[in-house]
């Protein structure tokens, strides 16, 4: 079978492509320029014709994916901006929302063989202020960021602008399929911060994707004081997220579901402790100030992922270790 992966050169997507190829699928990846495609073609050289790329310069254009969806049996839509230095929320919302709709429109019109579409959403699409101890699940929707962004526009916190883009994009996908009788169904995957080794092109430190940079910065600029014990976020390993996307297109029961894929929550001290506890600790990583003090976390339930996808998650120690080794290899290669 052949699978279309949009934004194939992204951090998560390159892992998805790799797992698909390892499992024997043929893959067509979309990228925004030929040079990004050439990097992937080289990376997957030994797969020969099983990996191909097509350039889709502007994913928001009507019909952008009309050609790309022809002859594939499944579509994984990952392309969406993960940047926080925009001048206006539309820079995030338009590509996220219209990119998603453009993929779905093309599938509806020309994806005659498509059986399933998997859209990469985010825990950003569920995260809202709640009382302490609340456990987030797939029934939650982030109305809060949408309201913030609608009211404050470019003055809203960048994180709310990003979360708005992800929430509107995912919601538009569910609205698109509602009340339609289609030959394909939809799954959305919702990861929190994604860590783990890098396969994508990373020429410089500045070219690290957002979530890899976050963990990298936490190692090169160690946290101190209360920042050690503050809730830092939920996380998941990129290999587990990628495998979850592949399982989401294989498991019949996943059809029609939103699925959170989260390995757990962390404070920076947890990450430093996990690194220290490894059988062979890495050199030059912070130890923090070991303590059992922790601020209350937010928790995302992965019960649906465990049940429907049967996925198990790597540990924080393994994921953090592999991220750091990989980032150091990439960024300090001789
Ligand atoms: P990357 O930044 O590595 O990849 C993003 C991909 O989307 C790239 O292929 C990029 O292409 C493409 N893209 C970005 N902006 C646009 C645009 N305006 N038009 C067309 N394509 C665009 O990020 P990730 O791999 O981390 O993210 C992939 C998906 O996973 C996104 O949907 C993101 O929201 C989601 N996600 C990521 C999390 C994380 O912690 N990393 C957590 C939860 C969800 P180009 O290289 O040309 O810019």
Can you characterise this structure?
- Residues 3-260 form the NAD-dependent epimerase/dehydratase domain.
- Keywords: Oxidoreductase.
- InterPro entries: Epimerase_deHydtase, NAD(P)-bd_dom_sf, NAD(P)_dehydrat-like.
- GO terms for molecular function: oxidoreductase activity, acting on the CH-OH group of donors, NAD or NADP as acceptor.
- This is NAD(P)-binding protein.
- This protein is of the alpha/beta class and 334 residues long.
- The protein has a single domain (2-195, 235-263, 299-312), classed as NAD(P)-binding Rossmann-like Domain (Rossmann fold, 3-Layer(aba) Sandwich), CATH 3.40.50.720.
- Helices cover 39% and strands 16% of the residues.
- The chain contains 10 helices and 12 strands.
- The protein has a 7-stranded parallel β-sheet, sandwiched between helices. Strands 8-9-11 form a 3-stranded mixed β-sheet. Strands 6-12 form a two-stranded parallel ribbon.
- Strand 2, helix 2 (34-43) and strand 3 (51-55) form a beta-alpha-beta unit.
- Helix 3 runs parallel beside helix 5 (158-177), helix 4 packs across helix 5 (158-177) and helix 8 (268-276) packs across helix 10.
- The radius of gyration is 19 Å and the shape is globular.
- The mean pLDDT is 96.
- Bound molecules: NADPH dihydro-nicotinamide-adenine-dinucleotide phosphate (NDP).
């Amino acid at each position: 079978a052949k699978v279309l992966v949009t934004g194939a050169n992204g951090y998560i997507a390159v892992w998805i492509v790799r797992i698909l190829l390892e499992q024997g699928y043929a893959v067509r990846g979309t990228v925004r320029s030929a040079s990004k495609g050439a990097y992937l073609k080289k990376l997957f050289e030994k797969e020969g014709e099983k990996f191909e790329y097509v350039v889709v310069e502007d994913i928001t254009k009507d019909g952008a994916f009309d050609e790309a969806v022809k002859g594939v049996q499944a579509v994984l839509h990952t392309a969406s901006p993960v940047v926080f230095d925009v001048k206006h929320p539309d820079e995030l919302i338009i590509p996220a929302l219209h990119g998603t709709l453009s993929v779905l429109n093309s599938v509806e019109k020309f994806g005659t063989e498509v059986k399933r579409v998997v859209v990469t959403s985010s825990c950003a699409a569920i995260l809202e202020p709640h009382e302490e101890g609340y456990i987030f699940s797939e029934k939650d929707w982030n109305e809060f960021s949408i309201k913030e962004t609608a009211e404050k526009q470019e003055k809203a916190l960048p994180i709310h602008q990003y979360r708005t883009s992800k929430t509107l994009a995912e919601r538009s996908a569910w609205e698109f399929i509602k009340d339609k009788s289609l030959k394909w169904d939809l799954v959305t995957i919702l990861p929190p911060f994604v860590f783990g080794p890098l396969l994508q092109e990373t020429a410089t430190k500045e070219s690290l994707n957002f979530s890899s940079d976050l963990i990298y910065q936490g190692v090169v600029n160690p946290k101190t004081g209360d920042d050690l014990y503050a809730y830092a976020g939920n996380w998941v390993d990129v290999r587990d997220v990628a495998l979850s996307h592949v399982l989401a297109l294989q498991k019949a029961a996943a059809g029609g579901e939103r699925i959170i894929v989260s390995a757990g929550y962390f404070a920076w001290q947890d990450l430093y402790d996990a690194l220290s506890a490894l059988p062979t600790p890495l050199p030059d990583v912070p130890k923090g100030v070991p303590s059992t003090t922790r601020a209350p976390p937010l928790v995302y339930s992965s019960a649906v992922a465990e049940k429907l996808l049967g996925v198990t998650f790597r540990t924080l120690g393994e994921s953090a270790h592999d991220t750091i080794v990989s980032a150091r290899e990439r960024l300090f290669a001789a």
